[in-house]
Write a structure and sequence with these properties.
Helices cover 78% and strands 0% of the residues.
Length: 162
């Protein structure tokens, strides 16, 4: 089991940019959304959602299983098997995170008198493609970076050998 400090650093280095970038792309790609005072709270909500999902969903086990099927006896966090691992992580996290972010975005809009929660299905479906692409790129960049910065990548590799 990795030390808690490693896990906290890895989570911050991965989850903060993911939440900010997903909100940024959502704002830029949605013609009904603009930069306003809800951007920062939405980033915080995105961060909290990805943290909750990270604790609920056994991402490391899933990554290990996917990587193990593709390249047995190799580290699933190394390339080229990481492309498939990143795709699975992206789909799982993004489908759920986009649902939560869309709900809260519409809720804020409704509270401001500018929208309705009844728009959820279409808003979710229209946001999902851009969010999947954005999240995949973020996972490819920030997951290895977070593993390196936290020392978790080296820790995991050392403990796989034993």
């Amino acid at each position: 089991m990795p030390p808690k400090k490693m896990l906290i650093i890895q989570n911050l280095v991965f989850n903060v940019p993911l939440a900010v970038i997903m909100n940024l792309v959502s704002t830029l790609t949605n013609p009904n959304t603009k930069f306003d005072l809800t951007f920062i709270p939405m980033c915080l909500i995105g961060f909290v959602l990805v943290e909750i999902l990270g604790f609920i969903i056994p991402i490391q086990k899933i990554a290990g299983a996917v990587g193990g099927k593709i390249a047995p006896r190799k580290n699933p966090m190394e390339f080229p098997q990481f492309f498939a691992v990143a795709a699975v992580i992206t789909i799982i996290l993004t489908v759920l995170m986009t649902a939560g972010m869309t709900f809260f975005g519409l809720l804020f809009a409704q509270l401001a008198g500018q929208g309705s929660l009844s728009a959820f299905p279409m808003a979710y479906i229209s946001a999902l493609p851009a969010m999947l692409i954005t999240a995949y790129v973020c996972v490819l960049i920030f997951m290895p970076l977070s593993m390196a910065v936290s020392g978790l990548g080296k820790f995991t590799a050392e403990h796989q050998q034993h």
